[in-house]
Amino acid sequence: MTAMLSTLTTPLAAVGAVCLKTLREFGHIGIFFGRGVLGIFSLPLQIAKFVAQIYFIGARSVLVICLTGAFTGMVLGLQGYYTLVKFGAQGMLGAAVALSLIREMGPVLTAIMITARAGSAMAAEIGIMRNSEEIDALKTMDINPIRFLVSPRIFAAVISFPLLTAIFDVIGILGGYLSGSVLLGLSSGTFFARVDSSVEMQDVTGGFIKAVVFGVVVATISCYEGYYTHTRPDGFGAKGVSSSTTSAVVTCCVLILVTDYIMTSFLL
Amino acid sequence: MSEAFIRIEKLSKSFGENHVIRGIDLDINRGEILTLIGKSGVGKSILLKLLINLIEPDSGRILFEGRPLDDLTKAERKAFLRKMSYVFQGTALLDSMTVFENVALPLQERRGVSREEIRRRVREKLQQLDLVDIDEKYPSQLSGGMKKRVALARALVTEPEVVLFDEPTTGLDPIRKHAVHSLITDYQKKFGFTAVLVSHEIPDVFYISQRIAMIDEGRIVFAGTPEELQKSPNPVVQQFIGGLDSEKNSFRKVNRCPRAEGI
User: Residue B95 and residue A139: Cβ atoms within 8 Å?
Assistant: First the structure.
């Protein structure tokens, strides 16, 4: 009887343990984020570090965002045209491209691209600092490492993500116009008239809200993974840094898609 | 008996099953140079990290001027930590910052220190440590010895009351090693700071330390003056000091081996 009970409860206990561990991890991440946000507002303000991080996360991502935005828009234009033409509704291409980009693809793809470019760099840089005792050194100098390293990155991500999303959206719409109108012959007037009539302020605001949330998620998770590299089972040396970087990128991408679904269900 | 500047009482620290520090009692007097010696891996660096609060002890306490650190308010604790500096074994310089920025960092993060004052103090420290014309270089562009001296400059730039040195001369050539030892003693005389040194440089540390404490298996097996250490009947102490002599003898034997002589 006891053996049977144990067979039944062991898998339950294992599931419970995993759930508790995940909850605890989310609690840690929440506290980590809270301390990061507090650091943004604590005096003296770290203006130079904020600007440097906005340059790194924002300005240096512009090229990659323009490239991905242009090709995403062009593909949307092509696919959308050949789908809509079957129903004789190719005139709706402008609306299809603009709404897909502004509501969904712009914020999500921008966040994923910045995760790949800047999120991985954040995790790796902070992870290396952890393993070479630089974070301990900051503590011995009475410098709050979270304020010093994490706060500027969270601030910069919140500023940069919506701006880069806006660039992605605009370039994407132009890409859609290029393939739909310039290459496939749809009238320019029809394309832009549909963009103008279908996109509402609510769509733009929703996209920006998503971008801000993704910025918080990417900066917090990437910094968290790097900061706690040493607590991972394989968290030492180069392997530890590579492992925390991989984990940061994967976790960010998954969380971007999960939070996107949750937010979309509330914003629609 | 006068009160110790820093008193360590029954301090213990374990990492899983590894009991690194096992109930250490030690007094550190104001203005002295105390050197911690012992075999590698006996917990000397961990003791320094416990002192500067980088690691929390499992049990025991540290008293600063008679007051347990646990009883200090947040502001008092912060003030205590500001009086301390730490020179890491691996230097722990921030690789993405220049030498100047590294040394200036602890001052920049403090309120009320002007830019001119920071520049003056950083230049002064770099000059005193014979680190000229490397302000704009990054740590990765420096030799191991130079990195050590930059780390030392960063630790001393705040003019701390207590400096914890974790093997400050490891990897330095004999001339630089002597220079660093001289610097520690000179600064100690000039500013009167208290220094706790982890070092394997025997007999060099005998000349610069007022007191020496030896750690073995997580416990203090000896604490006293260098003279007392050399006369100590404790077999662990004698084995440690004697081990160095026997090593020298074995090197001599290697030099006298027939093949070497035949060359």
Answer: no
List, for residues B30-79, the tens digit of each pLDDT value.
888 888 888 888 888 888 888 888 888 888 888 888 888 888 888 888 88
| Residue spans of alpha helices (H) in A85-200 | 93-99, 106-114, 120-131, 134-140, 145, 151-177, 188-198
User: Tens digits of per-residue pLDDT, B153-173?
Assistant: 898 888 888 889 888 887 777
Instruction: ipTM value, please give it.
Output: 0.79
β-bridge mates for residue B222, sequence order: B214
Q: Residue ranges per domain, chain B? A: 1-83+163-233, 93-159
Per DSSP (E only), the strands in B134-181 are 162-166
Note the pLDDT of residue B157: 87
DSSP SS3 for B117: helix
Instruction: Please give the C-alpha separations between residue B37 and each of A17, B52, B221, B223, B240, in angstroms, as whole numbers.
Output: 44, 18, 10, 10, 9
Residue A136 contacts B where some CB pair is shorter than 8 Å: yes
CB-based contact (8 Å) between B31 and chain A? Answer: no
Is residue B252 predicted with pLDDT exceeding 70? Answer: no
CB contact under 8 Å between B92 and A143, yes or no, is: no
A88 by Cβ neighbours in 10 Å (0-12 / 13-18 / 19+) ranks as exposed
Average pLDDT over residues A254-259: 94
Q: Where are the domains of chain A?
A: 32-40+61-267
pTM of the model: 0.82
Half-sphere exposure of A238 (CA within 13 A, CB side): 0
Nearest CA distance, A133 vs chain B (angstrom) = 5
**The CATH number, out of the four listed (3.40.50.300, 3.20.10.10, 2.40.50.1070, 1.10.600.10), of the domain defined by the range B1-83+163-233:** 3.40.50.300
Nearest residue in chain B measured CA to CA from A125: B96
